[in-house]
Amino acid sequence: MFKEFGALRIVECWASDVPDGKVTDFRMAVKAEENEEVVFSWIEYPSKEVRDAANQKMMSDPRMKEFGESMPFDGKRMIYGGFESIIDE
Predict the structure, then answer these.
(1) How far apart are CA 27 and CA 21, in angstroms?
(2) Which pLDDT score, from 0 to 100, does residue 43 have?
């Protein structure tokens, strides 16, 4: 659905070299349990306006409810936000 509503790119990555930290780390940030792995992902949109419109369309799309019911993870522990590029080479 993301690309259908304007996303340029979707990237999802399994943790492969994520060390335990002393103060914080990826596992602590999401309260990962011993049998869980951390996934880092992002979705790239051409603009904030396209992203905002896509989010509205997805939230009203009935497929999103089905998607939410079948997620293989605890969505309450997901961290998300919008970012602007500092460097893009």
Answers:
(1) 9
(2) 96
